[in-house]
Amino acid sequence: MRLFFLLVSKVNKPLFTAFLLVGLVSTSVFSSPYSGSQLPDLIPKADERSLTNPSFVLGHHWFRKISSSPGLIDFPPAYDYLRLKLAELTPYSQLTNKMVDIALLNSRQTNAFVIPGNHLFIYSDILVLIDQEDSLMGLLAHELAHLELSHYERGQQQRANEQRQALALMLAGIFAAANGSAEAGTSIAIGGAANQASNLLSYSRDHEREADRRGRELLRMAGKAPSGMTRLLLGLSAQSQANPDLEFLYTHPLPLSRAADQLTPEDNRITSQPSFAANSDASFRYFRATLLAYRAALVDNPEPYLKSQVTSPDSQHFALALLALLLDQIEKSQQHLDQITSENEFTSYLQLQVWLQSQQELRAKTWLTRQLQIAPNNLTMTTLLHLIQPGLPYIAATTEAYRYQIEQRLRGNLVAARNNNDEAMLYTIKAEQAYWNGNTELALRYLQDALNVDSSHYRSLELRSQYEKMKGLEIDQALFN
Ligand SMILES: [Zn+2]
């Protein structure tokens, strides 16, 4: 049996192999010395982010729609930080595709969730509760566990159509809430509808308990204290007493046994180890300060609110500077930036934005040029330089980029295409932007325009294949709408 498996594996035809392995496993049930849950998992899990996975197509469709809403937090250093934190956990997960795309949304609602196809959403408001990095790691581990254990898909198997409709309905509600969150009042009403839908779909309490347990395992394997997750989940339960409509609890109902899973002696042992991650702690403080500055912009008296939430001096000045920028108070933003004593990616990015918005482009250009000599592949700085310096080459695409990286590249390339009077490229970029804003129909029209103006044979072929791929996606999406 074993030899047969190896021989088949050498034939490089994944589908054929998978088909044979299905047969192999179903016969093993009767002949294997293993029983029940001990049975080894021989079937390689298909790529979660493949177009052949209907959950990915559905999830990706809504990920693009939700993450192009005005509620999206547009601050690349926050995504860079979160991407690195995820990368500390994903190697230990059983996900075939370790890429988890992220959207940070500005909302009054307290929520964080994953949708099929490895898409993670975090709402700014949940950072009020998450005031230490180990709690954030706990949240990431819990959400990663939901993906790894295919909880949506396993729910779907019970009543496929009903579940799929409920997922689409919930995501439509979240999309509406994300679009309305910039305006006072609307998000609460729409949030209610979204919550009703998510109630239909919420994970079962068993799935929650499973995600808690698996999340703790992931944390331990990554050398992190599982106590952070316990503290976060208990904090959310406590919060639910005062606010029974807490959004997180609609998507993640309280398992009956969570209270019993409180800090174990092992959790305490790991917590008591000395921390060598001082820099990482600072990055967390700035990440949190970024999300809470956005969150503060949604309340009536943002400054006192923000000061009460972000208390450490440097990150408080940073948060107030970011809030001022969001409220178009450029001078005030610079005043707060001037009081920050140490520089990092968050403060530098904010400073550059303030320079760019106060017509100090030369200053920004000098600074960026110097930084890019040290780190020539920094996408954020490359994009910013494109916005102020004509004549730069197009920014190359990578095979699997995060959505925020794709957005940055498109912004830089749009400016370059305009400067180069490259009409075909302009249409191509607009097509990609439309696609990433969830408007595939418009994207296809732009691609057709690009094909119409393009004369070079090589690029036409590339455009044609892009067109066919988008068209294929559109057909898949029609099934869900
Ligand atoms: Zn959960």
UniProtKB/TrEMBL annotation:
The keyword Protease applies. Pfam families: Peptidase_M48 (PF01435). Keywords: Hydrolase, Metal-binding, Metalloprotease, Protease, Zinc. The keyword Cell membrane does not apply. GO terms for molecular function: metal ion binding; metalloendopeptidase activity. One of its GO terms (cellular component) is membrane. CDD domains: M48C_Oma1-like (cd07324). One of its GO terms (biological process) is proteolysis involved in protein catabolic process. Its cofactor is Zn(2+). Residues 88-260 form the Peptidase M48 domain. This is Peptidase M48. It comes from Maribrevibacterium harenarium.
